[in-house]
Amino acid sequence: MIVSNEVAVAEPSRDCVAHLSRVLWSVLSFVTGIGLWWLATFSGLSVLPSPWTVLMRMIELAVSGQLWLDMFASLRRVLIGFILGSLLAVPVGFLMGWYRIARLVIDPWVQFFRVIPPLAIIPLAIVTLGIDEKPKIFVIFLAAFLSSVVSTYQGVVSVDRTFINAARVLGATDRVIFAQVIIPASTPFILVGFRIGLGSAWATVVAAELIAAQSGLGFRMQQAQLYYDLPTIFVSLIAIGILGLIMDRIVVRAEERLTHWQERVRHD
Amino acid sequence: MTDVQPKIAFRHVSKIFGDGPKAFTALRDLTLDIADGEIVTVVGPSGCGKSTAMNIVAGLTSVSTGECLVDNTSVKGPGPDRGVIFQQYALFPWLTVIKNVEFGLRLQGIAREERRERAMHYLELVGLKEFAQAYPKTLSGGMKQRCAIARAYAVNPSVLLMDEPFGALDALTRVKLQDQLLDTWSKDKRTIMFITHDVDEAVYIAHRVVVLAAKPGRLQEIIDVDLPFPRNEEVRLSPEFTEIRNKVWRAVYDRSAEAA
Ligand SMILES: Nc1ncnc2c1ncn2[C@@H]1O[C@H](COP(=O)(O)OP(=O)(O)OP(=O)(O)O)[C@@H](O)[C@H]1O
Ligand SMILES: [Mg+2]
């Protein structure tokens, strides 16, 4: 942009160095962690499988296709539940933020269900929805919906009044204000809600699979536990962590793209 | 300024916020006429109801009793005939500078080409042409304020309501924008109601200075500024200017001292 010509020249190299040192520290931290793990198992201090054993099991499970099937099953549940939950949460959140009556009617229910851990709904969901995919997806849907609805609603009520007034004096009707002020102004909040929602959906799916499933990463761990198969448990845990991290990064990237106009404190 | 019909008229306007024991009188029985094409500045201690009075003309705040008329019709709500520049800049941070300026034009259904052209014209006027594609977060306070001015001008309102528009700016930018405001005014003679804390500024740009008193907010004094237009450095340094300035200062200061 035209805004800062001379700064733009100096920035890249400094940014590059900062980025490089960040990467170096991360690598160092990672290598140290694995090293400590290896030491602990090598010296016989712990009954955990060594990094090497886990890696071998991971390759084995990947080659046989088992790992991919498990990942796919878990991801499918999360994505269906999360997308349905968020799709419903956004309009409901807007409704609550915009109309007082809607807020008064819906909010007590949201607050009530929010304090119930989603997993506690599982027994009820299994009894009423059967033992197939439905109860799991429903529970994830609920987890994603509840966190997204609250943040959307928060976003709408915290839109600065002066933005609304500024639009009104320029001739904006309520409809225009909603579409062109309320929605963009609350986008940052909504995306934070998505991030939290996706996190809690992921946590919920794994736990749900531990309790009641015939597939998925949680189910695999539960099976491995029966046979005292520690390496498989490790592989599943690592897969859960990596997938969770990737999904979180995707939302963060989307957030950065959609709300780049925001003034924010830089934290690196 | 003895026009037949005032552009803006406050008729015994009172504004009370809240009710019961918590009721607070922000304005009491304000009666004031502002002529078409007149520049009126409003000064007074903090909390004396300056913004409240302006919001009433803008249609953003309703009166409790009395009536506020613009063009002889009672104000019912906001409209693009009255442009407002807010104490906080109130630019939309999610829109670029030019999209901010175009906002009101788009609502009027003006075609894209013309919209661009008009927005560019006003951006040039306030010296922000090169920043058309920038987002507000990359602008300085003064640039944001100038963008807000361009946005208000672009819809071509017949009344401009400005709430301490130059309050946050450095002295030099401030003087520049004052001259720019007067320059623009000399071409189109809009009616301007301008709120400020700065007594020099109030005298420099105005036909009349309205001094409000606080607790409760009410009219204290109206001071005519009999200085020639165009206003310039010479006027600013003249003994007549100093005299009027002192008069306004005394009107504001006496009351503040009394209230304290
Ligand atoms: N929405 C509101 N609800 C309750 N009280 C209000 C409201 N808006 C303003 N007031 C009160 O009315 C009084 C006048 O406020 P106003 O904003 O008009 O003052 P002002 O003269 O513009 O002050 P400043 O110079 O600090 O901007 C203040 O005491 C304020 O607390
Ligand atoms: Mg004010």
UniProtKB/TrEMBL annotation, chain B:
PANTHER family xrefs: ALIPHATIC SULFONATES IMPORT ATP-BINDING PROTEIN SSUB, TAURINE IMPORT ATP-BINDING PROTEIN-RELATED
Molecular functions per Gene Ontology: ATP binding; ATP hydrolysis activity
Domain ABC transporter: 8-235
Family: Belongs to the ABC transporter superfamily.
Coiled coil region boundaries: none
Keyword entries, A-Z: ATP-binding, Nucleotide-binding, Transport
Gene3D superfamilies linked: P-loop containing nucleotide triphosphate hydrolases
InterPro entries registered for this protein in UniProt: AAA+_ATPase (IPR003593), ABC_transporter-like_ATP-bd (IPR003439), ABC_transporter_ATP-bind (IPR050166), P-loop_NTPase (IPR027417)
Transport in keyword set: yes
Organism in which the protein naturally occurs: Pseudorhizobium pelagicum
Top-rank lineage group of the source organism: Bacteria
Record protein name field: ATP-binding protein
Record's keyword annotation contains Nucleotide-binding: yes
SMART domains associated with the record: AAA
Transmembrane segment boundaries: none
